[in-house]
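Module 6 notes. Inverse folding takes a fixed backbone as the condition and produces residue identities as the prediction. Think of it as a translation problem where the source language is geometry and the target language is the twenty amino acids. Below is one complete input and output pair. Work through it position by position during the lab.
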């Protein structure tokens, strides 16, 4: 068969998602309990849905400004000032994107040239590596593990910086580990960025999903970083709005101007009804967020306790997000073998750690943003398979 003209290097080298692979394998088990995809179990708040529906009924079905409707940019600016200590001019410092995923891709295209090095945490959300490859950058992994709470700190980052380093990406709370960066960690990273004059993305979609009294701070609230820092966030995880596809970038005017130009060439604009729904979430959903986080916290305590009882497992207790990243090195299997064995024996779907980069080998990722009873059943099945 003629394979035709060659496709791009980006297409040929892209790796299929290890998380999605397990999701597909699970389809042959009708009673499977899926703990792979990072998605809240809750619907979006009713008033958020109502705002989107009303927008459609009102004929808000046309193109919107590339940067996003002003009502939403004002709501985001208010939120950033009130909650994050970041001043943002809604007309100069913000762009609305199709979730944090498109925000990150847009930032990569804007900042990274072929051959530039980008430092990311290992293990990491796999789309970071995929997007770096798409712009022909080079991924440099800052290895973390449970010994320091899965924290990508300045002392881990600095030895990796070279003359080719263009960008650092931090993600706190982190996917897949649930690790968080304390204020002192952020201050040291800020000094590192100013010293070496490197762009840095602070990817913050889990900022409100934190536990044990921890409060996530924003890197961009630290003075002197205006030239270097891009804050990326999304309404997907916090407000259970994954399907709405609304995110944003906050950065200096020079960066935003160029983001807007490239955004026009990607998707032009975000549907107005979804943006109107996002306004409602930012102004009205605080109590809904607290209720959801309380649910995740209860689930977190259950799954960490139960996993640490299992033969061959060792689970660090995360302070943020809604994932656990237990070590399964005691099982004597690779992470893919362990995930497939668990699926076959228990019909519980987990993600192999290797799906999150080479430093994820020896771990599994389980998402506990699930129904409590389903999560309980999943841990009982695991206990029957592995003993306690």
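Target side of the pair, the amino acids:
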């Amino acid at each position: 068969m003629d394979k035709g003209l060659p496709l791009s290097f980006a297409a040929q080298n892209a790796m299929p998602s290890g998380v999605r692979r397990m999701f597909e394998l699970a389809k042959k088990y009708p009673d499977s309990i899926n703990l792979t995809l990072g998605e809240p179990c809750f619907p979006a708040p009713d008033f958020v849905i109502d705002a989107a529906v009303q927008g459609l009924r009102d004929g808000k079905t046309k193109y919107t400004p590339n940067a996003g409707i002003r009502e939403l940019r004002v709501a985001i600016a208010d939120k950033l000032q009130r909650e994050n200590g970041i001043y943002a001019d809604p007309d100069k410092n913000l762009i609305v994107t199709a979730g944090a995923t498109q925000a990150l891709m847009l930032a990569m295209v804007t900042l990274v040239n072929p051959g530039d090095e980008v430092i990311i945490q290992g293990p990491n959300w796999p789309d970071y590596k995929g997007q770096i490859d798409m712009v022909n950058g080079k991924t440099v992994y800052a290895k973390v593990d449970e010994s320091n709470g899965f924290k990508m700190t300045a002392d881990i980052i600095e030895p990796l910086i070279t003359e080719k380093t263009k960008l650092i990406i931090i993600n706190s709370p982190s996917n897949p580990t649930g690790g968080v960066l304390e204020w002192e960690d952020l201050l040291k990273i800020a000094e590192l960025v100013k010293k070496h004059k490197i762009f840095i993305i602070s990817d913050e979609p889990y900022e409100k999903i934190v536990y044990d009294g921890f409060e996530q701070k924003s890197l961009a609230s630290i003075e002197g970083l205006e030239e270097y820092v891009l804050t990326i966030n999304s309404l997907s995880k916090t407000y259970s709005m994954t399907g709405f596809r609304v995110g944003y970038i906050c950065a200096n005017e020079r960066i935003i101007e160029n983001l807007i130009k490239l955004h026009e060439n990607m998707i032009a604009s975000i549907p107005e009804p979804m943006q109107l729904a996002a306004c409602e979430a930012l102004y009205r959903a605080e109590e809904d967020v607290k209720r959801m986080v309380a649910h995740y916290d209860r689930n977190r305590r259950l799954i960490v306790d139960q996993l640490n009882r299992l033969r061959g497992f060792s689970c660090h207790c995360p302070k943020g997000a809604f994932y656990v990243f237990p070590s399964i090195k005691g099982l004597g299997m690779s992470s893919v073998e362990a995930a497939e064995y668990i699926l076959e024996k228990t019909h519980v779907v987990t993600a192999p750690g290797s799906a999150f980069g080479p430093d994820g080998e020896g771990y599994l990722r389980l998402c506990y943003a699930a129904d409590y009873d389903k999560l309980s059943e999943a841990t009982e099945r695991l206990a029957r398979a592995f003993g306690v």
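Reference fact for the lab report: The two ends are 53 Å apart (CA to CA).
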